[in-house]
Structures are given as C-alpha cells and as structure tokens.
Amino acid sequence: MYEVKLASFEGPLDLLLHLIQKYEIDIYDISMKILTEQYINYIKNVDDLDINQHGDYLVMASELLRIKSKTLLPDAPVDEDEDIEDPRDDLMRQLLEYQNYRLYADILKTKKDEHDKYFVKRSNDLTNFENSKQTPLHIDLTELIAAYQKAKQRRVKIASESVSVARDSYSMEEAIHHITDALSKKEMITFDDFVSYSETKTQIVTLFLAILELMKECQIVVYQSNDFGEIQIERGRNYVE
Q: Which run of H or of E encompasses 204?
C-alpha cells in the first residue's frame, strides 16, 4: 500500500476542499461549473501525472463531469410525492465527512505537539535489588526513622547570646562525600562516627537521604548487629573511593 500525494494534496477530496475554500464555494450548494473547471485545470497543469499512481484524481474528474452534466440536463417529469435527489448530494456528504476527519486529525496533532513538550522520567531498573545475596541488609525504613528521631533528641543545643538566621548550605553531594570519605579510612563505620549531634535538622535529614541514596546505588551496606543496635555502615559492591 502506498500513499498518493499530488503536489501538496493528499487525495482528490483534499484538492476539492482546497478549491472550495479558495473560490469561496458553498459546500452545501456546490457550483459544479466552477469546481469542475478549476479541478480539471489543476489536473492538466500537473506535469508528472501518472495514471497508475494518480488514478483517483482522474476518477474524481470523471465523477465531477458526470454530476455537472446531470445538473445541466432538464429535469424529467416526476410525481409530486416523489423526492428528487440532487446529484451533488453524495459528493457533498463525502466532502463533509473528509472535512471532519481532517479537523479531528488537526486536533490530534495539536494534542501530540503539546504532549511532546513534556518529558516523563522512566522508571529505575531495580532488578539488582531482587534476591541480592551481596547485600546483607537487615534494617527497614521504620528503624531508620527511629534512629533519626533518636538523633534529633540527642542533638546538642548550643545557647548563644545572639541569634542569627541563615540558610543551611549542606548539600547531598557534601553528605555523600562525608560518608564515602569516612569509609575510605575505615571498612566499617557507625552512624555516630560521623554525626556529632550538633548539626542542624536539615543537615541530619540530608545525611539520612545520602545514606538512602548510597544504599540504592549499592555503594554502602547498612545493617544492625542486634535489635535497636547501632547503625553500621560498610562498603557495598559498587563502592568507589
């Protein structure tokens, strides 16, 4: 199957709609004289018209001539109760249907163009975490939260005569470097080894987020020797100094 295009038109109905709009022809009262003449003139001016590929255009030309000749013939006598069918009705229905299809196609294209402006992040591949024997992780999120609450409660409050308000500048990158730097000196550290509890709440939260990020990337292994014991951190299989 191939798609037939003539110049910038996709099929004879597309060309007819263009001519109707160009010459302001009423689609509900088509002037067959103007439409047929302009259509045939356009077909004649196409240099590379191949009858094997563009036969639909020639079929439509013959159909337009047939309808035009019917409109020129005198009306045959009919009974008063008999409805007279306009020879243009079938062409009008095809044009209206095609016009609707093209309208809906434009709407769908607009929606697609709007959708293309958004980027959806693909889900992470977590297959490395399934049945992993290299990660002896024996701690869940509840225990991490409990440790966080404990760290908050133990945080030293330093009184000061003057109070200044400043935005914390402790970033995830600094927290990750803090942890990996400690692991480069010791194969195993505890959470208390690099937390003095004089940090701000934001810094402690950032440290916990850094631990979770390193756990996800398998750069560290986090576990407890016993229930409610110290959080112990070791180098993971993807650890890089």
A: helix 201-216
